[in-house]
Amino acid sequence: MSTSAAINGKEIFELLREDLSAIEREFGRDTVSGVEAITEIGEYLRRGGGKRIRPMLLLLSAKLFDYRGRGAIKLGAVVEIIHTATLVHDDIIDEAQTRRGRPAANTQWGNSKCVLAGDWLYMQAFKVALQERNFRILDTLIDLTQQMVEGELLQMEKLGKLISLDEHFELIYRKTACLFSVCMRIGAILGGATPEQEENLAQYGRDLGMAFQIVDDVLDLTASEDVLGKPVASDLREGKVTMAVIHALERCTARERQTIDAVVRERALDGVTPGEILEILNRYGSIDAAHAQAMQYASLARNAICNFPNSEAKRALMWAPEYVVAREK
Hints:
It is a single chain. The protein has a single domain (about 5-325), classed as Farnesyl Diphosphate Synthase (Orthogonal Bundle), CATH 1.10.600.10. The protein contains 16 helices and 2 strands. The protein has helices at about 10-30, 35-45, 55-65, 70-95, 105-110, 110-130, 135-160, 165-190, 195-220, 225-230, 235, 245-250, 255-265, 275-285, 285-305, 310-325, and strands at about 100, 100-105. A two-stranded antiparallel ribbon has the order 1-2. The protein starts with 8 loop residues before the first helix and ends with a helix.
C-alpha cells in the first residue's frame, strides 16, 4: 500500500465521528423497554463500550458509494445490538465473570434475566431493521443470526476436545467473520452496489473478521489481565482450543500434548500456569504462525477492495486490516 493511501485511526474517527455518535444515540434509544430490567441491562452493556468496529465497517462500506441516507445509522445500531446480544449469551454459556474489565451482566442480573434480555435485543434489532423495508437486508440478518447460533452450538459440542484447524476456522467464521462480512454487505446494499462489488465487500469483511479473531485468540494467551479485562488464557479455561494451540499440538511432544489436553478436557489450569502453556507454544513458533495467518487474511481483505475507486472510505478500509493485526487489545 502506498504512503498516499495510508490513513490512521484518528483520521477514521474524524471521518465517522458524527455518524458514530448518531449510532450511539440510536443504540441508547433502541434498547429502552417498558420492562426496567431490560433497559438497565441494555444501558449497562452499551456503556461497556467496545471498538464499534462492526458499525464502522457498515458505514465505510456505504460511504464507498457516497450513500447519505439515515439507513446506515439505524442499521449500524442494529449490527451492534446483535453483537451485544451474542456477548450476553456467550457470557452466560461460558459462565464468564468479567467482560471488558467490568463484571459480566450475568453476574449482576443473573442468567435467567440475561438470557431473556439477550433474546429481547435480538428481536429489537430485527424490529429496527424492518423499518428499512428492505427484504434483502432482512434476509441477510436472518441468515447471519442462524449462522451465529449454529456456530455457538457447534462450539459447545467441541468444548473440551482437540479439534482440527479446519473445524476451528469454521467456528471463528461463524463467531466473528460472518458478522464482519454482513456489515460490509449491508453497506453495499444500501449504497446500490453491483453484485460483484457486493461480493467483494462481503469477502473483505470475512477476511478481516478471520484476521480479527485469530489476533483476539492470540491476545487471550499473550496479553495481561489488565489489558484483556478478563483472566489470561480464558479460552483454554473454557475448553476451547485456538489456532496457536492447534499449531503446537501438531508439533509438540507426547508429554506436552498430554499437558494441553488435560487443560482443555478439564477446563482448568490445574498444576500448570498460562506462562508454561505459552512456553510450549513459543517453542514451536505457534504464536508467530497464528500472526502470520492473520496477516495473510489481512492481505486478502485488502486485495478484495483494491479495484474500488480511491476515496477516504477506501483509504480507511485499506488501513483497517493493518490495525486489526497490529492491535494489542
